[in-house]
Amino acid sequence: MSLRLVDIRKRYGRQEALGGVSLHVRPGDCYGFLGHNGAGKTTALRIALGLIRPDAGRILVEGFDAARHPREARARQGGLIEMPGFYPWLTGRANLVLLAGLSGLSRREAAREADRLLEVVGLSSSGDRRVGGYSQGMRQRLGVAQALLGDPSQILLDEPLNGLDPEGVEELRRLLVRLVREEGRTVLLSSHQLPEVAGICNRIGILREGRLLLEAETRALLEGAGGGYLLRTDDDEAAAGVLARAGVALSPATGGGFLFDPAAHAPGEVAERIVRGGLRITELRPRPVTLEEIYLRVSRGEAVLSGGEADPAPAPVAPRSRRAPPRPLLRAAAAELAKTFSHPGPYVLLALPVLLAGLSVARQWAGSAGDLEAVRRGDLFSRTLVTAFEGTAVALAAALPLAALVLAGLASQALAGDLSRGTLRNLLLRPVGRTPLVLGKAAAVLAAALAGYALVAGTAVGGAGLAFDFTDVVEIMETRSAEPWVVARAADLRPELLRVVPLMFLPLAAYAMLGFLAGAVTRRGVSALALSAGGVIFLDLARTVGRELGFERWLLSAYLPSPLGDTSLLAGLLDRIRAPNDLPRGYAEGAVLVPLAWLAACLLLSVLAVRRRSVP
Fold first, then answer.
1. Max CA-CA distance within the chain?
2. What is the pTM of this model?
3. Interacting residues of 156 by C-beta distance below 8 A, sequence separation 6+
C-alpha cells in the first residue's frame, strides 16, 4: 500500500520545478509534505496522481508503475488538488454519483456512497443543493468527499484545509486521524501551514525550491533536534544580566523567559548562578523543539539531527491484485451523456435545426399550394408537383449546415468545458485512463450527434410525408386536357432516399469530431467554441479555392449542403428529382470515405493531445 516517487524531475522552460525528488509514503502513514508556496508540492502531487507527466522518474503505487498501469494506480488513489471543480448546475449528491460511476460503482451503490460521504464531510443537509450555490468551504468539503470515492487506500490532499472555518478544520483533522488510525488508509497531506499538520502526521518531508531536504519520522525529528531549556524567574531582566556575565548564551522565549543550550551550560549550573544572584526561579524545564523551528532550520540550511535512515532504493515489485473496474470506455461515455443532458442548454441547441427543418417543409407546402393555384388560374404555364422526396431533401439541406455548427459547438465543450471548470481533473483521478476517457467522451458526442440527426431527419421525412406524398414527380400543365408528365418515378427515388438520408450523418459526425478536437487543443470553453465555429466556417469558405485548384473533394464541407454551392448527396438527389436528364452534381464517390477519414483523424489527434496534456 506504499507510494513511492523515485527521482522525479520536472522543468517548465528554464525553471526547474522538481529536481530529483524521491519520497516514500509507507502503508498507514499520515505523511506531512511541507514547503513554502512555490516549493513544488502541488507539482509533485499532480505527478503522483497522473495529472502531469514528469520529465524523468517513476511513480510506484502499491507496486504498480503508474506510467504503465495508470488505471490500477488511479484505482488505489484518491486526490484533491487545490480548489476542486464541480458541475455548478448539478447538486452535490449528483456530482458525487456521476464520479462514483466512473469509479466502478453501480447506480444504486453510487447513490449510497454519495450519501455516506456527504455525511462524513458534514454536507448531508446541503447534498440536494446545486454546487453553484456552495461556499468555498462547502466546495472544499465536497472535494474531500470525491477524494474518498471508490474506497482508495491512498489519499493525496493538496492544501485541503484552505477555505475552511476553524470548526471545519478541526472536523477534517478528526476525519484524517480516523482514516489513518481506524481505517488503515495512507494519507499524503501537503501544506505550507505547519500548525495544520502538527499532531496528525507521523512522518514529515520538507521540500524547498523543488528539492526534498528532509524525510523523517516526526517523533524522531522532534526528539533529536534538541529544543533547549526554558528559564523563567521573578526578574527576567536581572537574570539576563547575571547569566550574561557568566557567559551563558540566551535567546528570548515566547511568553517570557529565556532559552539556553543545556549542552553548553548545565541546567544545575545555571540554576546555581540565578540563586546566588538573589533571584527566584519560577520555571526551569526542558523545552522541546517545535515543528515550525525544525522547518525553519532545514529551510535555512542549518544542521538538524537526522530523523532516521533513508529508505533504500526500491526494488521492483510484482503487482498482484487488480482493482480497476472493467469497461472504462462505456463508463466514460455514460458519464458524459449524463453530464451533457443534465442541463437544458443542449436540448435547446439541438432543437434549432429540427425547428428549421420543420419550417422548411411548411414553406415548401405554402409555396407549392400557391404555384398550383397559379397554374389553375393560367398565370403559370406548368409546375412540377412537389413530393415528399423533394420536401425531405430540401428540409435536410436547410437544417444540416446549422446542425453542423451546433454539434461542433457542443462537442467542443466535452473536454475544454471540463478543463476550464476544473472538472476534467476529477475525471482523470478516476480509474478510467486518458485514452478510454477521450474515446468514451467521443462516443457520447457521436451518440448525441446521432440523436440530433435522427430528430432532424425524422422531422424532415415525417413533415414532408404529412405535407406531401411519396409519389411520382409529375409536371402539371396549364392545359386541362394535357396528361401530367412523369419527371421521376417514386419506385426509383425511394431507394435513393433510403440510401442518402443515413449517409448524411457521416459529415455531421465528422464535424462533431472537429469540434471535439477544438476542445482537446484549447484550455478554455470559450476558445474551443470559437475555434470549432471558425473551423466549420473556414472549411466552407475553402471550397471556393478548392474548386479552382481541384482539391474540393477532399474537404469535409464538400459533403454537406452549403450556401456556397451544394455538392453533397442531397444535391444529387435533388437533381434526380428536378432534372433527371442532367448530370448529377456532387462527389458521390467520396461521400463515405472522406467524412470517415476526417472523423478518424480528428479523433486520433484528440487522443494524442489529451494523453500529452498537463491538467492543472
1. 141
2. 0.86
3. 3, 45, 48, 49, 77, 78, 79, 80, 147, 187, 188
8-state DSSP, 91: B
pLDDT in tens, 391-408: 999 999 999 999 999 999
The span from the CA of 500 to the CA of 146, in Å, is 47
Could you give all domains of the chain from N- to C-terminal order, each with its CATH number?
A: 3-223 (3.40.50.300), 228-287 (3.30.70), 328-611 (no CATH)
Segment 52-73, tens digit of pLDDT: 999 999 999 998 999 999 999 9
Sheet holding 281-286, edge to edge: 251-252, 258-260, 229-233, 281-286
Q: Give the angle 161-166-167 at the CA atoms, nearest 5°.
A: 100
Report the pLDDT value the prediction gives residue 116, as an integer from 0 to 100. 95
Quick one: which H or E segment has residue 486?
strand 485-488
Q: Is 204 within 8 Å of 34 (Cβ atoms)?
A: yes
DSSP-assigned states of every residue in 412-465: HTTTHHHHHHTHHHHHHTSTT-HHHHHHHHHHHHHHHHHHHHHHHHHHHHHHHH
- Sign of the C-alpha dihedral, residues 570, 576, 578, 582? positive
Provide the β-strand partners of residue 285.
230
